[in-house]
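Reviewer 2 asked us to include a model.

Predict the structure of this chain.
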Amino acid sequence: MTAQTPNPSGPHGMTTGRTLLFAVGGGAAVGNLYWAQPLLDEIAADLHASSSLAGLLVTVTQVGYALGILLVVPLGDVLDRRRLVPGVLVASAVALLLASVAPSFGVLLGALGLVGLTTVAGQLLTPLAGDLADPAARGRVVGTVASGMLTGILVSRTVSGLVAQVAGWRAIYVVAAVAALVLAVLLRRAIPHLDRRDRVPYPQLIGSVFRAVAHHRSVQVTLVLGASAFAVFTMFWTALTFLLSAPPFGYSPAAIGLVGLAGLTGAVAAQRVGRLHDRGLSVPVTGAALALGLLSLVVAGLGARSIVVVLVAVVLLDIGVQAANVLNQTRLFAIDPAARSRLNTAFVTGNFIGGAVGSALASVLWGLGGWTAVTIGGAVLFGFALTVWAVHRRGALALPGGGDAAAAAGRP
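Predicted model (structure tokens):
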């Protein structure tokens, strides 16, 4: 493929303004996946569905997102992203408007599946940021864009709860649709013209995603780590809505949404942790992040009746999961610069398959044993991820990018 080498300080590089716009655009896009999360009980009551059935809204949205990542994001390696990114934003706006007028639970379920399928702009912007960034600052730039996406996830819950309390749950989807259209215009103007890339037949393009996974052991291991951590992340946040809606808390959707602000520390961690990749510390810090996630589940399980302890667990979980996510993603971008969109496709598809499993497990485990069962299930998944990390930290995980390999061997 033909790829342009941008000047990071010039019109084709990642200027501060462009980096911030990518972060906002990615955050707004991925936030669409989580509008429903603090509103599950309210939506269930309005559309005459059970709470456990309402949990499927999160699952279906994430399954749709995984499909969108698989089917749309690889196009970023061959199509003009200056057209592709605004195009998917417009498509997501249409799906959001359909959700806002859904007359039944079944229609809403289908509309949110379409929202997931089309809200992939953030996963096109992240590898584009990697393409445009100076290699010496790639971890910092990708970390900043990723922190914007995490902020979108967390703020979406807060905004969703507040808007729903004032104007009903449907209003948030109208607001999100308008935001998507505004961002489509801004990003159309901000994304630079890049060299034309070689055309690849679509079936071959999609097949190359699977070949990249099969060819690189480091990709396989990273996908397992990412999917496991994200399964816990989604399981926790889905079940947290059930926990905070019930006694002794009995919180409103707005109050549940405000709890999400505690996780903004994870966004700060995601922005900062990219610098550690640039210093060759990606692999050891990934292990520390997974261990922190495991600790958060222990804290959450012990403090189920204390909002202060729950908030501490939220902070620890979000820092751990998002730090691991940024480091995993940045390592992948070092493997094959010409295939960053496809490697990102594999990574995020794996994550959101894990996320869909996690949200489904949240409903199942909640029914079996409430919050205790959920936290035990999450701890088991983190334990599994740590085992995989420990086995491969000096092998497959240390190979991409070179810096970690040197660090693992004790060389400067």
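The two ends are 33 Å apart (CA to CA). The first helix runs from residue 16 to 31. We have added this to the supplementary material.
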